[in-house]
Write a structure and sequence with these properties.
homodimer, 366 residues, alpha+beta, CV3147-like fold, CV3147-like, 2 domains, 12 helices, 18 strands
Chain lengths: 366, 366
């Protein structure tokens, strides 16, 4: 057990945005929300999944929808606790803590806001170990846990409770509500016992985010040393450096969808990488061939600072590095690949772990 | 207080379909559901709004969406009580009875099914005195009553509870869920006290439906005598006789929308009537000029039998009469016209009561 202070929150926001693979929201907005919450309510307790009781009850809180919309619809702050408390009351159980659904600049911070406001601990785990665009794309789903009862709200004050026949139906019904609510909403979903968190979550993701954020935010001036530290901390691979030369995007069905084209720089000068995204980066092709495939993490970072670049921050001329991280092993199962593999998203590639793609291509670690 | 037997149900289904002005569902499907419910559970008590307690609590049950879909998705029967009981439990109040939201072949029958299954009385009132396509189009809305908490379900078993900031938001959010659920859903909405039913409902609509149905189903062989009886019972007007020569329709946004063109017969041979509908008939134009306008009731019936013709039953070659009835006076207020008048639906006509239009045109009662 420990407390998260301002420094920890700054680190977590940046590290979680890195693990958010382009999605999960802007870390600046996220950290401002969390910092103002702990300033007002005091620091937040962080518990590991080993420190919680088997039968205790936990609920996450998260934003759903197109992250780009959040910039225009800055949350008032009470919608997170409203949706969280609504679900708690509906379930009629005392809630002993909260946790993030996914890594991301905003979605790592919302549970900190809720924890601070309600004086609850934050549990060091999430349901993805990264970010994904749809509600059934969580390790809880792979473990057969129901996404409902869930609660959904908007910044205007509309609120709903849903109980569905499948997690895919939760996604369908929550998605149309989210779109109607203005392309973003707040949800509390996948209520879990301590026992379920111990077996079905991705553990220590808050600490890992913090570790990553600390490296990225460090004063280390040598970009290559910093990169090395980052890759070592994440078992990551450095795939490409380049300059963004094209960004196609649109907001369709409540998602940010698109493709970014990166022209190689330095050692990569003769090549081009395309990264396709749906809120999150899903597929990276180098000169037409896959170099990283969902569910492995494809992370775009600033060439110099290594600051994570979210999909809404992609801009012509920006110089970026393309990194890739192996996903949590839960995703590399048959049900995992069926749920979040390339074909689910409509890309005709068989999933191949990034380690194998790297070995085949002879890419080195740095 | 009295009990509704099979004969009463047959009459109510047909009479309510007439008052449904094209919408509210097919009376054959409706009556089959209700008849099988009272066969299994016994007859249903009908109470007037004078016979209920001020502080008692009542919830309606209704179908939402495109009526044409119901024909393909015949309800299993348990979805009506599921949504009704869900809302009752959520509100934590003992429910003392149910009532229809609107007149219609199906929507007059669903509360009878619920009443029979749960041993509750049916209250002789509704929220429209006719049918309308959107959730805020009820007299409860005109009286400032909230549509939520509401419950919504589908035949698959998905279920939701909503609390919204306005009845228009209820319509928006329930509509997108209904479309996603397959263009139809079951809702329990506008929970009311006895006091609210006494002041804000349209009263005696079940009895009126029964009276209308009895006339239409009678053995009277003289069509003109039968028509006269019907117009007398409803303060109605006979506007036109003709043959359907064109039906344009589509299912858009979860509604059946379209226009039927009727070429005059007999005394009307030189004229043409067009009726525009969105689930319900909204506007009738004779040779381009309005002869009846929403919220007044525009009812199409079979030329011989006077059986109501629903929008999904409109067919080329069918011979119909066009009748019109003055709407309940609650609709003829400023808020009423703003909520359901011609301009709300996008028709550039100022509402004029059907009596005035008839007087101006010199149309006689029969």
């Amino acid at each position: 057990m420990r407390y998260l202070d301002e420094e920890a929150i700054e680190d977590i926001a940046v590290g979680a945005a890195f693990l958010g693979t382009g999605g999960g929201g802007d870390p600046y907005i996220g950290k401002m929300m969390a910092l103002s919450a702990i300033k007002k309510y005091g620091p937040v307790q962080l518990l590991t999944t080993e420190e919680i009781e088997e039968d205790d009850f936990f609920i996450p809180a998260a934003m759903m929808g197109a992250p780009s919309v959040l910039i225009e619809k800055f949350p008032k702050g009470d919608e997170f606790t409203r949706v969280f408390q609504k679900l708690g009351r509906y379930l009629g159980r005392e809630v002993k803590g909260t946790f993030p659904m996914e890594a991301g600049g905003v979605n790592s911070m919302i549970p900190i806001v809720v924890a601070a406001q309600l004086g609850l601990p934050l549990i060091d785990c999430d349901g993805m170990g990264r970010a994904f665009p749809e509600l059934q794309m969580v390790t809880f789903h792979l473990h057969g846990i129901s996404s409902t009862p869930m609660a959904i709200t908007d910044e205007k004050g509309n609120i709903g409770i849903m109980e569905t026949i499948s997690n895919k139906w939760t996604e369908r019904l929550a998605r149309v509500s989210t779109v109607e609510m203005g392309a973003s909403s707040l949800v509390s979903i996948y209520p879990c016992t301590g026992g379920q968190l111990k077996t079905a979550s991705v553990k220590n993701i808050v600490s890992l985010s913090e570790k990553i954020g600390r490296i990225i935010r460090s004063n280390q001036q040598d970009a290559e040393v910093k990169l090395n530290d980052l890759l070592e901390a994440t078992d990551g691979f450095h795939l490409f450096d380049g300059k963004i030369v094209d960004v196609e995007r649109g907001t369709a069905g409540g998602f940010n969808r698109g493709c970014v084209t990166i022209a190689g720089l330095n050692a990569y000068a003769d090549s081009e990488v395309k990264v396709f995204f749906q809120n999150e980066n899903l597929i990276a092709l180098k000169d037409g061939l896959p170099i990283a495939l969902t569910p492995d993490l494809i992370c775009l970072v600033d060439l110099e600072t290594l600051n994570p670049v979210t999909t809404e921050g992609l801009k012509y001329g920006k110089r970026v590095r393309v990194l890739a991280l192996p996903c949590n092993s839960k995703w590399r199962t048959e049900k995992g690949i069926e749920t979040v593999g390339p074909r689910y998203f409509g890309y005709d590639y068989s999933y191949t772990p990034v380690e194998e793609l790297v070995r085949k291509a002879g890419v080195t670690h740095v």
